[in-house]
């Protein structure tokens, strides 16, 4: 299944791109699985996701805990804790 | 802001209280001079999330109306960042709902601030634990 992955703020800067399309490999079921998969894709990903427990995520534009199943979501976003307002 | 208040109250006589909150870009932060603030957003999610927050506020408090406006892009000290307006029959609901919306918006609406110092140095602002604590009291 192809998904769009979006990155924001310093996560976007560290990964070096705002978004990408990806076919999720077998065995990637949760957001945590996806992070582990991404971290193996290169140093920039490893660096971006190195700060365990800081990165937040959304599935189809809704906040999701990292242990959430990706299920049929088409858009996955990773970002730092929000600092708006 | 006057126009936004008028949009909520025009032609109505059931509103007895309007509370507004305006967040403004400061020129100093932690003793550093700030020359600009860039707000990045995940726009589609921000719109969805702000509607969800407003829906929750309207379930919890008897509101006659509410408005949230959040800017993004590059802002300078003195510029408005966010406007929250809550209208209700009595003041308590309006005060509480406005405070709830701001506390929740800070921790749930997808906006990220990067601060530019006078020398051009840019840094992402870190989230504050007191913002999480403020959201948890609701």
TrEMBL record, chain A:
Any matching Pfam family: ThiS
Highest taxon, organism lineage: Bacteria
CDD domains on file: Ubl_MoaD
Protein name per UniProt: Molybdopterin synthase sulfur carrier subunit
InterPro entries assigned: Beta-grasp_dom_sf (IPR012675), Mopterin_synth/thiamin_S_b (IPR016155), ThiS/MoaD-like (IPR003749)
Cross-referenced SUPFAM superfamilies: MoaD/ThiS
